[in-house]
């Protein structure tokens, strides 16, 4: 029987690539989305990770229709970049709320089902900037750094129940956002990466799918970089 995998923010970009990869590996995939439309061919529910009520309602809908998710990929997130002197409280707090507290709300609610199953995977999508920092991204870097402490605490608290908890940390990824950069800036970014190129969303998704697999059953509390060597040593 295939396990149910939940991917938050799974209607585009890295989240959608993860959804496709998990489905190809034989999982029954449910994606959540807050805006836009649900991706074709996937089970989906509306969920706003900044609202506990919305997270609870989303999980209740999933459990009622398909059962409790066994693989949780906390991917939903936002950016509000800006220089620190001009970064408002709202710019800082909204990014923390979506990226860090949002991941907590999802993981907390998922544990109800995981504890009954006595197995499961919590997979948090972090970022290389959570370790190395990034000018203009104090809020985003802080939110992604926080995921490491969160995931490791979940790993210690839930490990005895067969539940693993890990962070995948992508580097610079080919997305709509990075595609809009001018060639000079793209070249500068690629030049800072030892492998000399951007990562594809599929390369991130493949690592998530591995961590969700039985082959990764003894990996927990890990920070797994998929960054072409950009953040090595952190």
Automatic annotation (TrEMBL):
GO terms for biological process: monocarboxylic acid metabolic process. Coiled coil: none annotated. SUPFAM superfamilies: NAD(P)-binding Rossmann-fold domains. Residues 3-192 form the Ketoreductase domain. InterPro entries: KR_dom (IPR057326), NAD(P)-bd_dom_sf (IPR036291), Sc_DH/Rdtase_CS (IPR020904), SDR (IPR050259), SDR_fam (IPR002347). Belongs to the short-chain dehydrogenases/reductases (SDR) family. This is Unannotated protein.
